[in-house]
Each structure stands twice: as structure tokens, then as C-alpha cells.
Amino acid sequence: xxxxxxxxxxxxxxxxxxxxxxxxxxxxxxxxxxxxxxxxxxxxxxxxxxxxxxxxxxxxxxxxxxxxxxxxxxxxxxxxxxxxxxxxxxxxxxxxxxxxxxxxxxxxxxxxxxxxxxxxxxxxxxxxxxxxxxxxxxxxxxxxxxxxxxxxxxxxxxxxxxxxxxxxxxxxxxxxxxxxxxxxxxxxxxxxxxxxxxxxxxxxxxxxxxxxxxxxxxxxxxxxxxxxxxxxxxxxxxxxxxxxxxxxxxxxxxxxxxxxxxxxxxxxxxxxxxxxxxxxxxxxxxxxxxxxxxx
Amino acid sequence: xxxxxxxxxxxxxxxxxxxxxxxxxxxxxxxxxxxxxxxxxxxxxxxxxxxxxxxxxxxxxxxxxxxxxxxxxxxxxxxxxxxxxxxxxxxxxxxxxxxxxxxxxxxxxxxxxxxxxxxxxxxxxxxxxxxxxxxxxxxxxxxxxxxxxxxxxxxxxxxxxxxxxxxxxxxxxxxxxxxxxxxxxxxxxxxxxxxxxxxxxxxxxxxxxxxxxxxxxxxxxxxxxxxxxxxxxxxxxxxxxxxxxxxxxxxxxxxxxxxxxxxxxxxxxxxxxxxxxxxxxxxxxxxxxxxxxxxxxxxxxxxxxxxxxxxxxxxxxxxxxxxxx
Lengths: 295, 325
Known about the structure:
The complex is a heterodimer.
Chain A: H1 6-9, H2 14-53, H3 57-60, H4 75-82, H5 88-119, H6 125-137, H7 140-153, H8 161-164, H9 171-182, H10 187-194, H11 199-207, H12 212-228, H13 231-236, H14 245-253, H15 260-280, H16 282-294
Helix pairs in contact in A: 2-15, 4-15, 5-9, 5-12, 6-9, 10-11, 12-16, 14-15
Chain B: H1 3-11, H2 13-48, H3 75-82, H4 86-122, H5 125-136, H6 143-153, H7 160-167, E1 182-183, E2 186-187, H8 188-215, H9 218-226, H10 231-242, H11 244-259, H12 263-268, H13 280-290, H14 294-319
Antiparallel strand pairs in B: 1-2
Helix pairs in contact in B: 3-4, 4-8, 4-11, 4-13, 8-11, 9-10, 11-14, 13-14
């Protein structure tokens, strides 16, 4: 890049400058047009779902279909919320129990193990950390069958515990916490020791209060992942009243007469809570994905 | 660990004992837990593929293997290679479909996300985060929800796509259920799930690319422009090479996740029409948990693992860099 040629740029005439402005403007217009078109393409399926959920069962099967509901009705939501076969409240509770328990357990184990790996030296540390990383690399689907058989041995099949226990320790969480805690100054720990704090006290009173940002990120990511998880609950849960929300969703679409009005209303009820969480913590989530992806 | 820290530790012997207790107290349970689940899972998965195993049958004393769940050696793999039996033919179809899916998703994803990230990066201020937030919406949506939304979009009668086609005077297309339709040698049903998957997944890579682009010093691109390069040339010859580590990461992760696709396919097509969208994880799931053929399913999982590892290694070779900036 050494052969700079300033002569070509320097004699900028008035005309050339104007052209540059025009081209810049045009570029800006095209840029925004493209980005807005992308937004429309992104939002269209959501819109189609929301519109469908407000259509009556006769309107939704009309040909050609309407985009906006002609006479918006809440009937689908009423049906879905009062369906005796599908106790939606129960499924919200199940999904919440699973997602919150996993978040709490995982944040605890990840921060504790991450702290040990980051700030202590002991025999076999590198080998153990390599093992943690290795488990991160194996796709869950490969270990799905033995995981199921282990749960069966522990009598945890068809139990919400079966959705919590196998993921209470997460390799990615440990990795992420270790990376962050390594950046915290060790002087903090020494100061704690001089004040007579136990190692546990150092973890709980000195390290954990510093972990707000990574814990928020990991917590939200874990929550959304568990809330949306489908395959594992599909394998583990058999009783209707222990289902989580994503499993419930396929109930409507799996019926003999697939009724899209009810399916769309149920989908809205499942998708929207996560979108609210997302809208609230948007910055953390997007940043979290970007950072955790790169780190 | 710094010299000062280790010296101060030596001065107070009690602290060291406390540290050792703490380390043991935390690592032993964690390691036992992780090992108990992971090592046992890996060993069990490895053992299973040499047996004809069904959990309902009473087996031998160790992990239920042996007895009514006989040892069959490499019979599953021989069966897979010969490809004569029904399950072997379905496995071949699933493997082929998984490869088609992954190799369709990766380039389309990159063509979509990289320019989009560059465009978003060139927007200033609040608007940039607004665009990024909207583009990321599908990524946080439950994949079952995505599958149902797109199932509704693709619906032959009620769907938005066919409504648009009718308005333009065309005849409705059975996107997910007509086995005769194909485009570029790949079935239309497969393209349809690929598009739904791209829609759900592109937010991740876009966000990662935006973050990476923000990390590249502006001076590099400006220097190239001063040298007479156009914006496209600067992007092509300066930015893309600098993005190589990110590109490697994104390619590996996108491949890995598309080899593991299950949710949207199971909900949208359940492998149909005529197994044209049957992918490996669906095949494994059906064999293991519907037909209770867990030995066979474990062998198929092992093949999935091999494919995933192979693809990762190849990509690392192709995109490796030795320098940093």
C-alpha cells in the first residue's frame, strides 16, 4: 500500500465534486431502500402470523386470502386460552420453571467453575479445561440417545427435572465466565484475603458482584434458548400436562384438521413473551451474541 | 499468577489450605457431574453402535447391553455402506439431504449476511442499532414458531406466497408437499425449508459480522481508497481478507448448526414429501425414539459426528490465517 498516488485525487474540480455528492446521495437512498426492504422481509412472516391470529376460522381459509383481517376477532385467543385439552397456563408455568431453573443453576456453576479456572493454579487444570472445551464441540444430537438412557436410569423421563439436570453445567458458560474473570484484577482477591475472607467469601462477595454484565448476557441467552428448546422436551416429556410451550404449539398444527387460526393465535402467545424479553434487553442480547461469538 | 501473589500466599499457610479445600470442593463435584454425564454419554453412545439395542428389551447387566440386545459388531456400518435395507436407504437419503441443506444454507447465508452487515455498519447512530435489532428478531423466535409461521406462509390455499402468485396470475404451488417440483436439481420442499431456516438464522451471522467490521480500523479501507480503489474493491481486497478469522468462525458455526437442523423440518414437513427433506437428525430421532432402534440410531449419530468433524477440519484448513492486526 506504499505507492500512494495523490496526484490523481488532488485537482478536484467543482463538477467532479458535485457528481460525488449526487452519487453519495443516490448511494444513501439505495442503502436505506435496501435496508428497509430487508426489514419488511424480516417482519412479514411475523405480520402474517399476527394477522392470521385475528382472523375468523372462515376468513382464514378464504381464497384469495386477505392480508388484514376484515373483522378482527379475539375468538381464537379465547379458544386457545380456554381449551380444556391444552392448559396453556400450565405450559407457561412448566416453561418458566425449566428456563429459570436452568438459568440459575447454570449461572452459578459457570461463574464458580469459571472463577476456579481463571484464578487458581492446580494439578490437571489445563487438562480439565480442555475436557470442558471438548464437550462444547460435540453436538448435542450425538449424545441425545445416551443422555436419554441416563435419564431413564435416574427415573427422570417425563419429568421437568429431566429438562434441567443434564444442562445444569454448561461448557460454554464456564468458558465465557473464565474469559471474563481472567480480566478482573487479582489484587481484589488479595485484598479480600487480607481482610480474612474465605475463598468462598471471595467468590460470593468479591467476584460475583463484578459479573453483572456477563451474567446478564449468559442468563438471557440461556433463558431464551431453554424457552425455545424443542427437541429435548420432545424426547423427554410424554405426559400432556408436563409439556413446555414449544411442544404445545405442535398440538394445534398436528391435529387432524389443521386449524391455522388457532395455531397462529397460540404461536403469538408463545413467541411474544420472548420478543418482549428481547425488546427489553435488546442491547445485552445482540452484544452478547456478537461478543460470545467472537471471544 | 504473579510473583507477588504467590509469595504472599506462601507467607500464610492457612490460606493455601483453604484454597486447596475450595478448589477441591468446587472442581470435584463439577468434574464428577460433567464427567458423569458427558463421559458416560460418550462411552455409552460409542458402545451402543455395536449392538442391536432397544430400551424396551431386557438386556445384559452392563448398561443393558448383551442378552436380548445382542452384540452385532460393525453390522450397522456394513448395512449403511451396502445400503440395501430400508433403514439404510433412508439413512443414505437423510445424509444426502443434510449435505444438500448445509451446502445450500452456507453460501446463501454469507451472500445475505456479509453485504447486509456492511450496509448496516455504514449507517450511523441510533438507526444502526434499530436495523440490527429488527434483523435479529427471527433469531430469538422459537424455531417451532418459525416453522408454523412459514408453514402458514407456504400454505397452498391460505398462504401469503400463493396469494401473491395468484395475484400475478400464476397457479398455486404446493411448496411443502409436491414431490415432483424441483429447482436446480433440488426439491422445492427442500428450498422452502432452506429459506425458512435462512430467515430464522441470518441474524446471528449478521450481528457477528457487524461486530467484526466495527473492529477493523477505518484507516485500512481509506488507505486503499486513496490508492485509487473503489468502495467495492476496498471491501473485496482489504475488508474481506481482514475478516478471515470471523469468516472462518461463521462458516464453521453455520455448517455445524445446519448439520443439526431438526426443529423446523420436523414441524414443517416431517421429512416429506417422499423423504425429500428427511435430514440426519430427524432420521436419528425417528429411529431412536419412534422405532426404538437405538443401536442403529447411535451408529447414525456417529456418522453425523464424523461428518461434522470432517467439515470443521476442512474449513479450518481452507480459511486458516497466521497473522493478526
